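Table S2 (text version). Query chain:
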Amino acid sequence: MATVMTAANKKFTLVIDAGHGGHDAGAVGAITREKAINLNVALAFGRLVEQNCSDVKVVYTRKTDVFVPLHTRADIANRNKADLFISIHTNALPKGHISRGMETYTLGMHRAADNLAVAKRENEVILYEKDYKQRYQGFDPNSSESYIMFEFIQDHNMAQSVELAKFIQRRTCATAGRLNKGVKQAGFLVLRETSMPSCLVELGFISTRDEEQFLHSTNGVNQMAQGIYQAFLDYKRKYAPGASVPYKPEPQQEVSIPTVVPSQQQEEVKESKREKRRREKAEREAAEQAAAEKAAAEKAAAEKAAEEQAAAEKAAAEQASAIQLQPQGGQIGKVQQSVEINSSAGSAIVQPVPQQPEAKVQPAPEKPSTVTENKVQAPVFKVQIVVTSTKQGSKSPHLKGETDVDYYVEGGLYKYTKGASTNYNEILRLRKQLVDKFPQCFIIAFKNGEKMDVREAIREFQKKK
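Corresponding structure-token output:
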């Protein structure tokens, strides 16, 4: 009977680990840092347990903003013979990526690339420890090969750890209205070093603005803590050690929480609706981000192409200006290729190019005859006036009222031109007429329908003058 009474009166020991701390800030957001969010939620969760569960001993790995090595956190749990270890963290993604939701990890195989990435980021904290190579036996947190060892770890606490993680996901996502990203497995060093059921909670994404604001708020901290606390009660009812004495039954640990938690069916329906709304919002934001990145890439490509063309045009113009170009019987031709109307045309991208010196020329023939680019052997010169990422309609404001324009596609961009003549002098004069509307327009050349180096085209024109 004495043995039974001792077992029944043994306190359940819970170790709460607030990830990072001190000079290890963890992930950094726009308004706060991971170490602060982790500590706030850990302390709020611990206070709920201390206030309502007299038979539970709560141990914290840190209660202030101090740095605690990973192995010390595990030592604290092992030394106190903890029954449960819960490590609290906040997730993050690289700049430009958006994700939302809460996920809970247990120690195990990490075949998914996302799981491995999270484990690597959280394990990098050992780099702050001077003797980490000796203490962790050569473990490199950034090497995928170092994680092979986790394939061979046999965790006899795995079943209870997974059950705890499920409780945390279900309770906290429902209480705090978080997107449920599920229970996962990965190779976290802080879990590997502990000898009791354990899990690591990623509260949300500090890199996503609305999630960071929620986790930084007092209301957000309290809701997350209440959810984890309810999950702890679920776990304790199922797995708490000790024997019940017939004449002194174990008290139930029901606690009044300010936030009313609906039934499981209602939770699931509301959670499903919230997940759908958040998923749709995330998809819209991802699409907008992708469109912005595409536009930026197209603009960069256009600017690069403009720089290369500007350099070639400048050299050609300098060469042409040094020679007295005589008039010849060259004939100007119009390329009558139609431009489709596209009311959803994108913004124009104007290519920068330096002003060209005008060569000394004589008037061109008044009635030029038509030439066909596919048959003529001489180079055909044109004035490139504007570049866009999408095809423009004939009434597009980017064309500024110009008609009889042509275009060609290069590098995924639509490049619009005006005029077409084998006489370089005529196109040079045309460019002077257009420069008021299109200050950065420049001359290009084609031969047999293929774009060619404008300098070579000018040399051919000079030989045939």
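Notes on Table S2: The first helix runs from residue 2 to 9. Residues 2-261 form a domain with the Aminopeptidase fold (CATH 3.40.630.40).
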